[in-house]
Every structure is written in structure tokens, then in C-alpha cells.
Amino acid sequence: MPFFESSLAVLALWAVIGYLLGSIPFGLVLTKALGLGNLREIGSGNIGATNVLRTGSKSTAAATLILDGAKGAVAVLAARALAGEDAAQLAALMAFLGHCFPIWIGFKGGKGVATFLGLMLALAWPVGLLSCATWLAAAAISRISSLSALVAAAWALLWCIVLGQGQIFVLTVLLVVLIIWRHKDNIRRLKAGTEPRIGGSKA
């Protein structure tokens, strides 16, 4: 954990900025703007890139993935540059919560995987790169998005230890716990052997 050097007012400001950035529902915005239908009525109804892929538009899914990751990274980098590491980590947490519980759409958001990866890239880029590589490797092997997300999140903790990034370990633990909780239904389907593969009808 970083030393808390910023004032409460500064921390509160970056908490709000982080949340508002994270709460931008890019999946919904892009699919609506491109006439791809109501994402809430497609597949799982989730606003993330995996569900956007079910519209049949790979480019829109890729754009959603990048933007959902970028909004977390922007929150961290801006807070770090203008305030400090304590504000950056708080902004990271709030950006993640903003994605999962966005005020604009009734607090019913995504599961936070792309935002998590973007946050990790901004917080400690070596951990972020290895976490992304872990997701890609798990996805290539399993072809299951939720399993890949859970594996990448869990391994992010190991990468923090191996690479000596103890200053973000507590935050990473918290984010991983939230990711696991957000995937509780997926975990039940994984145990039952009914979780769809990437490109399937529900996730």
C-alpha cells in the first residue's frame, strides 16, 4: 500500500473522477451508435467485450475491450500525475467499481476484466503485461472467457510477488476478490460443465 500523503479532499476528488471514468458503458454506447441492437437483450446482457462479440462485430468487441481497459488506465495515470500514488490506487479501485456498478445504467455493469487489465498496466506495466499474456494463454487453451479472466486475475497476485510490486498487492487482492465475486454465476457453470465457450450464447 502507498503512504497516504494526499488530503482527504484530493482523494475524494480522484475517487469521484475514477468512478465516473469507470462507469462509462462503452459496450452499450458503441453497439447503440453502430446500430448493432440492444446489448442488454443479446447473449448474457452484459456490457463487456465478450457479450459485444455476440453481436457479430469483432471490431466493436475489440474497441470495447480497448476502451474498457483504457478508462481504468487513464484514471490511474491522471491521478498519479496530478496527485500521487495514493490517489492513483484509489482512482483504480473506484474505476473498477464504476465499471461494475455504473450510475448511468442503474448500477448494473460488467464484470470488470478489461478494466482490471487496464488498471494493472497503468499501476505496474510488467504485472499488467504478464496478466494480459496469462489471459491470452488461458483463452487459447480453454476457449472460455470467464475461466481465462479468473486465471489471469489469480496469477496477477503471483506476478506482483515475483516482480516485487508489493505496493499494489493489497489493491490487487481486493480487485481479484471482486472479480471472483462478479463471476460467481460463471463459477457455478464451470463446475457444472455448462459454461459456454468464447463466441457462445451466454457468459
Describe what you observe in this structure:
By secondary structure, this protein is mostly helical. It has one domain (8-103, 112-192). It is 68% helix and 0% strand. The chain contains 10 helices and no strands. The chain is globular. The N and C termini lie far apart (34 Å). The relative contact order is 0.13. The mean pLDDT is 93.
What structural keywords apply?
203 residues; mainly alpha
In short:
It contains ten helices and no strands. It has helices at residues 8-22, 26-33, 49-52, 58-82, 85-100, 113-123, 125-142, 145-162, 169-182, 184-192.
Q: SS-based structural class? A: mainly alpha
Write down the secondary-structure element order.
Answer: HHHHHHHHHH
Radius of gyration: 16 Å
Largest sheet: none
Please estimate the helix content: 55-70%
Beta-strand share of residues: under 5%
Itemize the secondary structure elements and their pairings.
Layout: H1 8-22, H2 26-33, H3 49-52, H4 58-82, H5 85-100, H6 113-123, H7 125-142, H8 145-162, H9 169-182, H10 184-192
Helix pairs in contact: 1-4, 1-5, 2-4, 4-5, 4-6, 5-6, 6-7, 7-8, 8-9
